[in-house]
Design goal:
Length: 450
């Protein structure tokens, strides 16, 4: 069992959060201590607030007089309402809160049923119950309750290198799935643009959009995430990055872009893409041969069916590369000319043969401020061909331009560091957002009037 304790100043906010949820038949009130309970399983929020306020002495100077606790058994543990009630009362007693007024709510809004407790932490004498060593005491109590009730040991789930990334399941907890997908993609893959980032996210039915604008005279720059179906259609309300965690924010992702520049080596991916392209009889065959080499390619099309973007996701090297980074012959224009002969816009480009790739050094060449890593990679590729010096210069210029423009659907900005946390089986983004909001200092004039 995982137990989380949050302290705050918004007693009414905590009562409203839990009361509204269970009154919408997404849970029920199990029991109370020193607070009125009519036994119906629902809550009169105003009445509950008045009952709590009677127990807070006017002389108390405690700025955060209440606490909000969530008890989260392992998903495989199936407890009845009676079991949840006993578990909550035992927890409060073992933590030293047995004499405090509190309410026990059971939440059923997700498959993993769990309990929330709203309680005071100020005694009738105005003194606040000490929360010293609560972290260690909390873990000890959880282990003892697991033994008493025969529960499975449940710790926060940690992301491991071999943990698979799965596509979004529309019937599951979508927000949690999006958060886990974004976190694991950021931990494992290297990408340098928002287009490349979206290419790998799309493999798991997630999309990221840039949100720039002004609100009340202030500029904001953020990211918004979407859960999609296999066709890219949105299936749920979008989530601001702040609702998923710092790891999903624009600052974190931009930092990821910067760090990837010095760690990506395009040579291994370019070699295998070249082999697949040379052996393929068409686009579908090309895609299949890439998959045999553990590479996915994400094409982007115009309404007319023309390829305007191609991004390669190499699952062996964990790199995501826009086609132009591998070389001119792997860009969207070149691939469109090869696979869609009737729609080509550059006849000369379709006549350019795909040159065999000679393996190059695996050491990533350092790039200067005026030259992108894609240009370096292209230079290595063309050095093995019979292209003239003039053609090499033209190709280098085109590649540098492609690396700094919207070539292939990528955006021209660098979206920083992945401040990763480990949301496990007890992670619920709605509750995490509520917990952070509850801990903020209460502004004057926000106490409800009756």
């Amino acid at each position: 069992m995982v137990a989380k304790i949050s302290i705050g100043n918004s007693l009414y906010g905590a009562l409203t959060y839990n009361g509204e949820k269970i009154n919408k038949e997404r849970g029920r009130l199990l029991d109370t201590n020193k607070i009125y309970n009519d036994g119906s399983g629902t809550v009169d929020i105003h009445r509950a607030y008045e009952d709590f306020m009677r127990w807070i002495p006017t002389s108390s100077r405690t700025e955060r007089p209440m606490m909000h606790i969530s008890l989260n058994p392992h998903p495989d543990d199936k407890l009845s309402d009676t079991d949840f009630t006993r578990l909550a009362h035992d927890y409060m007693e073992m933590m030293g809160f047995a004499d405090m007024p509190y309410m026990i709510y059971k939440h059923e809004d997700i498959d993993r049923h769990h309990v929330h407790i709203v309680a005071l932490r100020v005694g009738t004498d105005g003194r606040c119950i000490s929360d010293r060593n609560n972290f260690y005491k909390n873990k000890k109590v959880c282990r003892e309750l697991e033994q008493k009730y025969g529960l499975k040991v449940a710790e926060r789930e940690k992301i491991t290198p071999d943990m698979p990334i799965r596509k979004i399941d529309p019937d599951g907890d979508i927000k949690r799935q999006v958060a886990n997908t974004v976190k694991m993609v950021g931990m494992r893959y290297k990408f340098q643009t928002i287009g490349e980032y979206n290419a790998v996210l799309s493999l798991f039915n997630v999309r990221c959009d840039v949100a720039d604008g002004r609100v009340n005279g202030r500029e904001y720059h953020g990211l918004v995430y979407f859960a999609t179906d296999a066709d890219g259609n949105t299936i749920a309300t979008p989530f601001k990055a702040s609702r998923l965690g710092k790891f999903a924010g624009r600052e974190a992702i931009e930092g990821r872009f910067e760090r990837a520049k010095d760690s990506i080596n395009v040579a291994p991916t370019r070699q295998r893409v070249a082999d697949a392209l040379a052996q393929s009889a068409g686009k579908d065959d090309f895609v299949e041969k890439l998959r045999e080499r553990n590479i996915d390619v994400v094409f982007r099309y115009t309404d007319e069916g023309r390829i305007y973007g191609a991004t390669f996701v190499d699952h062996d090297t964990m790199t995501v590369l826009n086609g132009s980074r591998l070389g001119k012959e792997y860009s969207a224009n070149a691939l469109n000319a090869r696979f869609n002969q009737g729609q080509q816009t550059d006849p000369q480009q379709s006549q350019t043969p795909v040159q065999p790739i000679v393996p190059v050094s695996s050491t990533t060449g350092s790039t200067s401020q005026g030259q992108s890593s894609s240009a370096s990679g292209t230079g290595n590729a063309t050095s093995a061909s019979s292209t003239s010096a003039t053609q090499q210069t033209q190709q280098s210029q085109q590649t540098r331009q492609g690396g700094n423009s919207n070539n292939g659907g990528d955006y021209d900005f660098r979206l920083p560091g992945l401040d990763l946390f480990q949301p496990g089986q007890s992670f619920n983004p709605d509750e995490e957002e509520f917990r952070r909001r509850m801990q903020r200092k209460k502004k004057k004039g926000h106490r409800p009037k009756f």
